[in-house]
Design goal:
Elements lengths: L9 E5 L6 E5 L6 E3 L6 E3 L11 E2 L1 H15 L2 H10 L19 E2 L13 E3 L12 E6 L18 E4 L4 E7 L4 E6 L4 E6 L4 E7 L5 E5 L3 E6 L4 E6 L5 E6 L4 E7 L8 E7 L7 E6 L13 E2 L9 E5 L5 E6 L5 E6 L8 E4 L13 E3 L6 E3 L2 E3 L15 E3 L5 E4 L6 E6 L5 E6 L6 H10 L16 E4 L4 E4 L6 E6 L2 H8 L4 E3 L6 E3 L3 E5 L2 E3 L4 E7 L5 E2 L4 E5 L8 E10 L4 E11 L5
Parallel strand pairs: 2-7, 37-44
Antiparallel strand pairs: 1-2, 3-4, 4-5, 6-25, 8-40, 9-35, 10-11, 11-12, 12-13, 14-15, 15-16, 16-17, 18-19, 19-20, 20-21, 22-23, 23-24, 24-25, 26-27, 27-28, 29-30, 30-31, 31-32, 33-34, 34-35, 36-39, 38-42, 40-43, 41-42, 43-44
């Protein structure tokens, strides 16, 4: 099936969602593409007819695809209408990215805004003769297996009482471990999801500490002694320590729970009022500043109140939030050069519970989960419907979960579509209002700001079949067994979703090798490589391979895999590949 013909004329048009300019071949007129900048669905206009006016949400796109398949049974035809016209999409250059909207401000030096949107040339980046769509039929769902390093939990609900109240909690070890900071007891406790128990307690010399955790190690910051310590998850022993500058006050730190670094440290410089607040990236191995990453001065947000920082699981995207009222939220991708933070200001309403606002990158930073729902990195709503409420990441990038607050149920969502697919009864976390009342009656007991933040109270550890929650008393862990596939089978509803983690990058001169894995209620699934660069192949077992040309000119490519089951279910997996010159350190 051919999806493009020879070029005869150029069409220029703009995205109706973000204003980004594009140009493409006239043989693609009438086809629909998704804007790489904002995910708005666009219809390419006929030559000379002006900008596209058709715009639909990504969720509506998926719904229309499925509806078309059901009505006419023409799966391949529907795909051609939706995405077949453009088989090779390119993200805009990093230099063209700007924080959009009236509320956008820069965290570093500002750049002059262009009078019109830049034009991204789709012609120069598409193959001259696009290949036929690659389709493989009859692939069976992946046999459910245990991920290396994890053990699936087969026990019942249980509660682990702690010797004191948690001041902080972070995930680490790719989600297997939870690191707990017991401030009053001057202890660190390590929960192991494989053992379903506290496997280590570490005495501290101070009650003024911060914690962060990566894939293989966790970090304890002793703010009294002004030093960092790195501890191994494998041995649960201290490996090294190093001081940080004595004239710096460490305010916060963040580290991707499935990453090897870097560690983000938020400092206040006591000796330099002009550059008082800054962010520095430290190497996880040396515990010293990492020269690979830029230092950021927070000149525009230095007086914004309490700032918190969170990292995506892979450690590539970091977020910034004013947790007091949520009126400042921002993102920056440490792999992009030059580093360009994006910060938005909002008119937030202050709440009595000051830790109620959060802004969390998911595993790869492709989604941002917040107290008001899921968003794209461009701050565009990505949920099934607006106003869904609080959502938090899981330890798997293909899923996120709802935050129950004072409810007793956690809901599971597909990250790609925002569709709710399952739920689990976890029992009540208690009543937040009761805990606040106790604080009001006994000010010496705990302060409101000492309560564990909302986003740290629910942890869906997909690889271990368990959900761990923290009650509002902050003195226990509650473990609930939950197998997603078992829950879906009990519902007796059709389902189809990818379970493999899609790669985010590839290297020129090297082979990209990715095995698609998925779960389905149908015994047979058709997999189609719907959009891909020239030379990419799909095997009979669903293995995706591409020998990346050494001379490949583009920085980013979109790959779209479409799964179609016999029971009418449709699923997509999008691979937004960053094309690197060499292996990223």
């Amino acid at each position: 099936m051919k999806v493009a013909s020879e070029v005869s004329m150029v069409i220029q048009f703009k995205c109706s969602g973000c204003g980004k300019g594009y140009q493409t071949r006239d043989d693609q007129a009438g086809e629909q593409i998704e804007c790489p900048q904002c995910q708005t669905l666009l219809t390419i206009p006929q030559a000379g007819t002006g900008p596209s006016i058709a715009a639909k949400s990504r969720k509506n796109l998926f719904g229309e695809v499925a509806g078309t398949f059901l009505m006419i049974g023409a799966i391949l035809t529907g795909l051609v209408l939706l995405i077949g016209g453009v088989v090779f999409l390119v993200w805009p250059d990093d230099d063209a990215d700007e924080a959009s909207g009236e509320n956008a401000v820069a965290a570093s030096s500002t750049t002059e805004v262009e009078s019109g949107p830049p034009v991204i040339d789709l012609i120069g980046t598409a193959p001259g003769s696009p290949p036929e769509l690659l389709t493989v039929s009859g692939i069976a769902p992946t046999e459910e297996k245990t991920e290396p390093g994890f053990t699936r939990y087969a026990g019942g609900q249980q509660e682990i009482k702690l010797p004191g109240v948690m001041a902080d909690l972070v995930a680490g070890g790719r989600g297997r471990f939870l690191v707990l900071y017991l401030k009053k007891q001057k202890q660190i406790a390590i929960y192991d999801a494989n053992e379903v128990k506290i496997v280590k307690t570490i005495p501290l010399e101070t009650d003024d500490a911060l914690i962060a955790a990566g894939a293989d190690a966790f970090v304890i910051a002793d703010r009294a002694a002004k030093k960092l310590e790195r501890w191994s998850f494998e041995s649960l022993e201290k490996e090294s320590e190093a001081p940080y500058p004595g004239h710096f006050q460490l305010k916060d730190m963040a580290l991707g729970y499935a990453s090897q670094g870097p560690i983000l440290l938020y400092f206040m410089n006591e000796n330099d009022r002009q550059n008082r607040y800054l962010l520095q990236f430290y190497d996880l191995e040396t515990l010293q500043t990492d020269p690979e990453y830029d230092r950021i001065r927070l000149t525009d947000v230095s007086s914004a109140g309490p700032l918190t920082f969170r990292a995506s699981g892979d450690g590539t995207v970091f977020s910034i939030t004013n947790s007091e009222d949520g009126n400042i939220r921002g993102l920056f991708n440490v792999k992009r050069k030059p580093l360009e933070p994006k910060i938005w200001r909002f008119n937030g309403d202050r709440q009595r519970f000051t830790e109620g606002k959060y802004f969390l990158p998911d595993m790869t930073g492709a989604l941002i989960l917040s107290d008001t729902g899921p968003y794209s990195p461009e701050y565009r709503y990505r949920g099934d419907k607006p106003g869904e409420g609080r959502v938090v990441p899981s330890t798997h990038p293909n899923f996120y979960v709802s935050h129950p607050l004072e409810d007793t149920r956690v809901e599971i969502f597909l990250a790609e579509s925002g569709e709710k697919i399952a739920s689990s009864i976890i029992g009540p976390l208690g009543r937040l209002s009761d805990e606040l009342d106790r604080i009001d009656r006994d000010p010496e007991r705990r302060r409101v700001k000492d309560l564990l933040p909302l986003e740290k109270r629910v942890h869906y550890i997909y690889q271990s079949d368990q959900i761990v929650t923290v009650p509002f008393t902050d003195d226990a862990l509650r473990i609930v067994p939950f197998s997603l596939v078992d829950a879906l089978n009990k519902q007796q509803q059709p389902y189809l979703f990818a379970t493999s983690v899609a790669p985010q990058s590839c290297v020129k001169g090297s082979e990209l090798d990715y095995q698609l894995e998925f779960q389905s209620s149908s015994p047979s699934v058709t997999v189609e490589l719907s959009a891909a660069p020239e030379g990419m192949t799909l095997s009979e077992t669903g293995r995706l391979t591409w020998q990346v040309p050494e001379t490949f000119a583009d920085k980013n490519v979109y790959v779209i895999i479409t799964l179609s089951a016999e029971d009418q279910q449709i699923a997509f997996q999008v691979l937004p590949l960053v094309v690197q010159d060499q292996e990223s350190g």
